[in-house]
Amino acid sequence: MQTSPEQNNQTVVVSILDFEGLKNKYFAFTSMGTLLRDIPDTPGLEMIKLFGSGRKNGFGILPNFGRYVMLSIWSSEQEAKHGMEEANFLQAYFNRSTRFEHIFLKTSMVHGSWGGQQPFQISAVYEEKDPVAVITRATIKWSEMIRFWKDVPAVTRSLRKEAMQPVFAVGIGEMPFRYQATFSIWPDGATMKKFAYQSRAHAEMVKKTKRIGWYEEDLFARFSLVGTAGSNLSALANH
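^ thats the sequence. predicted structure below, dont judge the formating
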């Protein structure tokens, strides 16, 4: 049973990191398999994952060796901020990046599961007029892999052409092709809803998802923004 937002202070941090230069890109790539292998005891840290991204803002099938995204979940905002600043294993990784942004979030709605579990706990009240962030995550059935990836470019193009665009969006993955996720920030909840329900390409993708059933598991989570630290989103959006 989930606690109410007033009782829960869980804080989610999405860290977007860009790396430049062959040595730094190699370090970032190899860290995918080593950074989180033996995580030291870090107060308040509930979950942490490191994702790669694809080209074309993360939505291309080919990998982008210069951009990575870290998702961490903390039991409180204070522990999140302290951990991001003081955890040596995180700082060693962040310090090799050229640009980074830590985005602090609180969950206002979630449905579905991630690896058979629900890592996000409601800790904020949704306000449609305020900026919102969204995380989607899905496990694609092996049998539907080709059909799924054929439809992704149309949705990606719609993100660029529609009037209701996100402030920032990136496609990320735990494993190439199969475990896919997206992270996006929208100027307000109304804009996000308009894209979800009125964008022709996105609406068609939703219909196909229901008709074909190409996910073994999926999750949708919506968040309120509570703070940022690092570079700035406009700089990241242009790389």
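The mean pLDDT is 81.
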